[in-house]
Design brief:
This is Accessory factor UbiK family protein. It comes from Oricola thermophila. This protein is mostly helical. It has 2 helices and no strands. It is rod-shaped and about 120 Å long. The termini are far apart. The mean pLDDT is about 90.
């Protein structure tokens, strides 16, 4: 059993170690609570995931290209029709 200044230092070191462990536990709990709140907030915002956005974007690009091709084809057919009706 230690006495005097050594006991005080030992008790102080033990107290600091316990406080550090408690602080780490509090930090982990705070991080978990913060992460839960952020996930809850994001879930309520009705956001889409990146892969879903990219899939819809690709579909829109393809639809635009197809629309342009069809517009060009219609214009060509209308031109042919006009030429045929002029004869």
């Amino acid at each position: 059993m230690t006495t005097g200044p050594n006991k005080i230092l030992d008790d102080f070191a033990r107290l600091m170690t316990d406080m550090a462990g408690t602080a780490q536990g509090v930090r982990r709990e705070a991080e978990a609570a913060f992460q839960h709140q952020i996930e809850k907030l994001l879930a309520g915002m009705d956001l889409v995931k990146r892969d879903e956005f990219e899939a819809v974007r690709e579909m829109a690009v393809r639809a635009r290209e197809e629309n342009d091709a069809l517009s060009k084809r219609v214009a060509e057919l209308e031109e042919k029709l006009e030429k045929a009706s002029d004869k």
